[in-house]
Automatic annotation (TrEMBL):
PANTHER family: MANNOSYL-OLIGOSACCHARIDE ALPHA-1,2-MANNOSIDASE 1B, MANNOSYL-OLIGOSACCHARIDE ALPHA-1,2-MANNOSIDASE-RELATED. Ca(2+) binds at residue 535. Its cofactor is Ca(2+). One of its GO terms (molecular function) is calcium ion binding. Disulfide bonds join 360-389. This is alpha-1,2-Mannosidase. Its EC number is 3.2.1.-. It comes from Orbilia blumenaviensis.
Amino acid sequence: MYGLPRRSRALLLGLILFVVGSTMYLRSERLSTVEPISTYFPHSGIHLDRSVLKSRADAIKEAYVHSWHGYIQYGFPMDELLPMSKRGGNSMSGWGASVIDGIGTAVLMELPEVVEEQLKFISQIDYTKCEHQINLFETTIRYLGGMVSAYDLLAGPYSKFIQSGMGEKNHALVHSLLKQSVVLADALKWSFNTTSGIPMPFFMLHDRRIKSEDINSIAGFGTLVLEWTRLSDLTGDPQYATMSQRAQEYLLKVENPEIGEPFPGLLGTHVRLNDGKFVDSHGGWGAMGDSYYEYLIKMYAYDPARFKRYMRRWVEAAESTMTYLTSVPGPSTRPRSNLIFVGEYSNGKQVSMRGSHLACFIGGNFLLGGQLLGEMKYNIYGLQLVEGCRATYAKSPSGIGPERFGWDESLVPSNQREFFARNGWYYSGEIDYRLRPEVIESYYHAWVVTRDDKYRDWAWEAFVAINRTCRTEHGFTSISDVSREDGGNKDDKQESFWFAEVLKYLFLIFNEEGIQAKENIGFVPGKNQKWVFNTEAHPIRRY
Ligand SMILES: *[C@@H]1O[C@H](CO)[C@@H](O)[C@H](O)[C@H]1NC(C)=O
Ligand SMILES: *[C@@H]1O[C@H](CO)[C@@H](O)[C@H](O)[C@H]1NC(C)=O
């Protein structure tokens, strides 16, 4: 705690913000759900023409094709393209992650030749063999999620696209997506055979040595349940759902809350595989915690009948986040700031004012919760968080936000005091950009909820900045320094999630044409939403 308690003025109707030192406690009254969001967040008045939207959607598609060609030329069949050294890298088990992560976006973009090439390749992967270490979380969200989602799309609303674009023979290839998902899950499932039933985070496929003395992170085993449950629902074989949900129980009800649950619903980070007990009390919505919270509400979106408990757990975490983790940057330097950030906690209840690009998905996640539960307070809070993360983009000379940032007035580095006074945050730790999606993902949700084209403009600005700094002759790359206008050095990695997430959210925010629009197949959260995105942005059909 720094300084004396000090009360701050209400920023928005219905929200009273208490600033205690540097930590702001936020209490919200129950707001009417009948009133539109524009009552609280006025519409900017920006309306984009269809022709503008079309040219933007086309530019995103062009970026996909450019990245795909680079990958095929120099990276395929390895996991990803290293565009500067013009070769492939295997950071994701070596089964060709970019293909599986890329197929869903290619389907939505209606690129039949690309999809056909991807389907053929996927049908021939041997998921029973792997020389590299398996990361169960990454393998689930990228490979299993990618295949199950592509199956949901191609056996569902995009089956017409298959027929008209690719011919009848490809139906067998579509079904191989599901078969291959079963092969993969069967190759991985022994890792759940620990004393507690919490799976091992890393292992060699053929090792089969259970190491129950290890630990796993809450995101590591709390972000499997959507993909493994969907696989059971599609195949009628309950074992995958049972395994993943059994592990999840340790997070729904914590064995040792005095350590593992420092705030109601907000958990520590690491859990022991032998007894399911937490070993630490630090955490938040950033790395290793993030998608556990994300999936609580997404499971409810997937099937409200089966996953009400998950939703209640999300509500607990959301309420604690609003109450204990919210803070405004440097209240004394920016008294009228309406920026809100979410901090991280360590040693139990100490909240530090640091954030990350990864945690910027939280605005979108609150907006999803607000839509599903009809709770205006989550929508408002979500939009405020989107503004905070937007500031990290808008005020960076490159136009892209950093991997890590801070807003603790007492810790501003001396060479950033002026920057902080102007912008309300400062660079703190890593300043690179790895083609991450979270800020754009939240813009997507903000646009869906508000229908305010301002968010489309923000997404476009982000794309133009990425295209300007990360584009290479053969694809896109991570960059070293977003605090420089040119983005610093090109770091030589085109992550597979560039295809799965960044390009998909960008395409969906601009695209008003194609099957998606004509068939009204409901990607949009809310009452008629038919899909839920896994944490890798693979759309899974709601149960
Ligand atoms: C799990 O372990 C038990 C006993 O150690 C063994 O009988 C069983 O076959 C194992 N299951 C899997 C899926 O490996
Ligand atoms: C993206 O970069 C390419 C290559 O520099 C350029 O030709 C294209 O116009 C850019 N697109 C946008 C939308 O800025």
